[in-house]
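Exam prep: given the inputs below (a chain plus fe (ii) ion), describe the expected output before reading on.
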Amino acid sequence: MPRSIKILTLLFCLLFVACTGRIFNKTNDLTLDDEGRIELEKSPYQCYFAPEKIIIGAELPEGSSASLVYWEEGHPETSRSVPFKEHWDSIYHAVPEELDISKSYTCAVEIDGKKSRSFPVNPGTPPGDEFSFLVIGDTRAGNSLAHKKLMNEMTKHAAAFYIHTGDFVHDATDPDQWNEFFEIERPLLSKMPNVAVAGNHDISDIGIYTRLFFREERFYSFDYANIMVLVIDSTVPIEKGDRQYRFLEKELERYESSGMDHLFVAVHHPPFSSGSHGDDTMLKETVVPLLEKYSVVAVMSGHEHNYERTKPINGIVYIVTGGGGSPLRPVDISSFTEKALIALHFIKVTIRGESVFLKTIDINGKVVDEARLR
Ligand SMILES: [Fe+2]
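Solution:
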């Protein structure tokens, strides 16, 4: 495409988003599948906030009077519903109420008496039960076929939630890229909640990241069974004493007094990396000394398009998992490297009481790294 047309297209997209605030195209018609069920192209999608709190997002026709219907798995007689509320653009959201973490639920979107295909929602796991979570990063523009294949592999694993370590898309102001992202991740997003970490490519003036994932801030934390996950926003400078730094201090203190067993950190930029970008100096100098005061199991990042697991550095293992579909890049071996791979992959972390296990799985479903983290 000639450069002038590319620039004009980009300007048009920016103007469209700036004027309307819209990232998705509004659709006013309900599409039904062969069995008369509502077909929702890019949704519903689940976002994890806390035990018993999962927000269900859905792209719905404008002015929809839709409900989220949910019932205990295998017990449709327990069916309840909550209305979807308009959130932003064509995105609506609903929060199922009074979920019991010892139970599994089945949900569906209902509009004018018609239901969507049902999908599972699991609000939590009682402490003591074994569970896993998945992590993927850097799915942004490049190889959507690889992204799809990885999603297909991830859906084969039972997991409580999955963390995306950022760079969902290449250009956060391009509606087509978000549309593609949601289309590809839909099978996983409807099966388990997403935990979104902001990458440098996901940030825009109109706050698309926070709007799409229902977050007020790009830094937050949550608890699940016996673990706490701390999400750091590395797309902005962090200085000792600033708002985010104080939040991290407060949450780390909360973890220390909570009695929980494991603490994980998710942040887009890697504090330690043998990839083409190298160590993130800001995180290494400002955040790492703070994390080292606490018993962090692992810091999980993206940004580098490769895989790397370090030896414990002052007690913390650093994992780069940026092989979600972006063009792969080389990775060196540093003095701190335990394992480095140039591979499309995701990781699976399994918590069994006080033990933590890691598996790194490539695009063909093959385990390419395995370690006991605790
Ligand atoms: Fe990045």
